[in-house]
Fold this sequence. Notes:
By secondary structure, this protein is an alpha+beta fold. The chain is built from four helices and eight strands, in the order βαββββαββαβα. It has helices at 13-18, 66-82, 119-125, 135-145, and strands at 3-4, 28-29, 33-37, 45-51, 54-55, 92-96, 108-112, 132-134. It starts with a strand and ends with a helix.
Amino acid sequence: MGTQDTSEREDCPFCEIVNDNTDTEILLSDDKLLCFRDIKPGATHHYLVIPRTHIDYCKALKADDIPLVERMVQMGWQVLEKHKVSCLDDVRMGFHLPPFSSVPHLHLHVLAPASKMDGKSQLHYGPLSHWFISVDKVLTQLKTRGRVK
């Protein structure tokens, strides 16, 4: 199983953020999730939403994790609203597939405006990327197969 307590992953930089061992500015948080800015933004607004509990990657998700992913998406919309993103039709949310994830801790990328991403960002986060999977596709796979492929 891909889920473990954060205390078991002291080498994980996102677990360090969860455990308040960094100076990362937390933009939103609740009992299950944290949201902060991506340090290498691919869009004007680029945020990461992570679970407080360590989950390695999106491929570790199971059907039971659908509420968690939906909650991550909800927090993504909240941070965009908080930062007054006006065009909510120009948003891209998703996950990198392993081995292309830079940090082995589940994190939802929230990017806006998606249409203004440069070529490099389109390669990393765009709809034609081979290693970035949209949150909609993840949820569909979890609902139909019970696991992300």
